[in-house]
Specification:
Strand content: 15-25%
Structural class: alpha+beta
Distance between the termini: 66 Å
Shape: globular
CATH class of the largest domain: Alpha Beta
Strand order of the largest sheet: 3-2-1-5-14-13
CATH architecture of the largest domain: 2-Layer Sandwich
Number of domains: 2
Number of strands: 24
Number of helices: 17
Helix content: 25-40%
Radius of gyration: 23 Å
CATH topology of the largest domain: Nucleotidyltransferase, domain 5
CATH superfamily of the largest domain: ATPase, nucleotide binding domain
Amino acid sequence: MNEKELILTFDIGTQSARALLVNAKGDIIHKTQKVYDQPYFSKRPSWAEQKPDFYWQCIGEISRALKAKADVNADWENIIGVTCTTIRDSCLCLDKEFRPLRDIILWLDGRRLETVKSLPLTMAVLLKVANLEASFDLLRKAAACNWLAENESEIWAKTDKFVLVSTWLTYKFCGRLVDSTASVIGHIPFDVKNNRWAKSDDMRRIIFDIPDSKLFDLVNPGEILGTITAKAAEETGIRQGLPVIATGSDKGCETLGLSCMAPDKAALSFGTTATVQITTRDYIEPLPHIPPYQAVVPGYFNPEVEIFRGYWLLSWFKKEFAAKEVAEAQKLGIRAEELLDERLRDIRPGCDGLVMQPFWTPGVSMPFAKGAVIGFSDVHTRIHLYRAIIEGINFALMEGLRSIEKRGGLKVERLFAAGGGSQSDEVCRITASMFGLPVYRIQTFEASGLGSSLIGFVSQGVFSSFEEGVASMVHLKDEFLPDRAIHTVYEAIYERVFAKMFDKCSPLYQELVHIQNGK
């Protein structure tokens, strides 16, 4: 192994963009980051869009800044490949010259079609019998491609290619409209099981009405997408001709970066969306009719359960209820979360009977979902609510993990945490006791970038396998063991309260939706 060889990795997230120079031991030699002044803009309530070249301009800025750091030790010349991992389910329309026709529609976007076309009678009957009508309708109404075809028909007619942010950035790097199969995640007709675009008679073609002509080429993770063009070199400072290597989405790279390559390990992501994900060779639907994702390791799958607006709820809480801690933290020169973590320790596990269900955004398996908090009394404070949010997200992730375990006939023994929320020791302790499993953190919070870099090293022959790469690059740093007595309390709350909340409240949620829609 040549310890001087480096992979240049870009991690394009919802809130910020990062550029990393990583060596084969898993050390981040240099890093630059740009926190977005405006992660998205909304032309209408619930919309979330971004300018087409926003992320590319960020890449240019952080890449040039990284080069300035690396040039001090001549590290820039040791780059052997470039990788990029991005947010998922964020799309863009391109014309025949591959020029953007409109702004990017981000995964946070909440626009919905008001009505959808009638389905063939046989299919409609089958969906009704399977109680999937509402889920099927939600998917169709939430798909940006369907909304564009209905509401921006002129733009849709001019759209030669309908691409993801990852595809667009690949084009900017190397002039080719191609993407990794592990990045094709979103409202798009991809057949995960067979690792290809869905065939014309596939139900996904009805849900996501995108013709073949508007789709793009695919390669597997680890394959070469192209090389850095002269124009990209000029705009980023990256050496022309360097290979651009296919990796995958931010969550998929994060799971690999956490060393979760076997189904006895689960990756917990405490980010804007909270997720639990495993890696397995078996095609396991984490919930009925919900496919897994293609893993960044070819031949593997990532069953995943998502809690939309997961740890975003803590940002919401801080904004709405924690002005006192925010002001105090500013005086002390620390993060408000550090003060809130201290307050967490004053609240007993179970929050004195306060339980939160964090389904603030409807999903395919829960098309009428709403958030709920039960058990309020005069003993509760805003810090009780803060802890209830953390516990509620974890209860939902526990439910997701148990579904994956049951449907896959497997047992997870260890948890590996990443994402902003994992930086809190207290959150990790709570998580260990709730799940009744040890929680680990690795040597860096840049797990997604680390995983993406690892794929680059495997692709370039530095490692002969992903297992060898994980052994060299991923190192355990912190361990949080469960308190068995506290776990017993959480298990009782989960089994006797949380697991029953959604079914009990679901009819009321549906009534609220009908009332809001004027029905």
